[in-house]
Design goal:
By secondary structure, this protein is an alpha/beta fold. The longest helix is centred in the first third of the chain and has 20 residues. The chain contains eight helices and six strands.
């Protein structure tokens, strides 16, 4: 069991690569996120590209996400991640707003060396998003829809780029930064 004592944030990456959490419609993931939310933690989830040959591909990912996203405070997938689990409906940055409607308080969707989009829920949902979101100005974060371009730099590899973007966003939230600054940190 994961010890959640003294934590303010639980970040979980890649449920598609964690078969025990994804099995049975994400029952293990649902249980872990429920426990974290009950403990007052902010929950953060990042997705990965789903390998169609993996055991996780047998899960109904749209249904699994509908089940667990109300327990997720911060969601940070890429367009490629979404396309692999949702099909064409996850094919662009517009998915960020649709994902907020499924329950998360904050959604950032990245598109490689293109733009990123940050969308947030209203003040009632943000207020229930655990310890970390207690650091932010709820009115400033409510109902946001912000886009940012990737910095114009030479790309040598994209390995870790999504993780770095998630870290930038979470750092912005932990620091109490506004949505624009947090998205800028994510894109850098």
């Amino acid at each position: 069991a994961i010890d959640l004592a003294d934590a303010g944030l639980l970040h979980l990456g890649y449920p598609q690569l964690l078969p025990a959490l994804a099995a049975d419609g994400g029952a293990g993931l649902h249980a872990l996120l429920s426990r974290a939310r009950a403990a007052g933690l902010t929950t953060s989830l990042d997705l990965a590209v789903l390998d169609p040959a993996s055991p996780a591909a047998r899960e109904d990912w749209p249904a699994l996400l509908r089940n667990v996203l109300p327990l997720v405070d911060v969601l940070t997938p890429s367009v490629d991640d979404l396309r692999s689990v949702l099909g064409p409906s996850g094919d662009d940055l517009d998915a960020a707003r649709s994902l907020v409607e499924l329950g998360p308080a904050v959604v950032m969707v990245t598109a490689g060396n293109a733009d990123a989009r940050l969308c947030t829920a209203g003040p009632e949902r943000l207020a229930t998003a655990g310890a970390v979101l207690g650091n932010v100005d709820i009115p400033a974060w409510s109902d946001c829809d912000v886009r940012a371009a990737a910095p114009d730099v030479a790309v040598r590899t994209t390995v870790g780029a999504g993780d770095a973007a998630t870290a930038g966003l979470l750092f912005g939230l932990l620091s109490g930064d506004d949505p624009e600054r947090s998205l800028d940190l994510a894109m850098r």
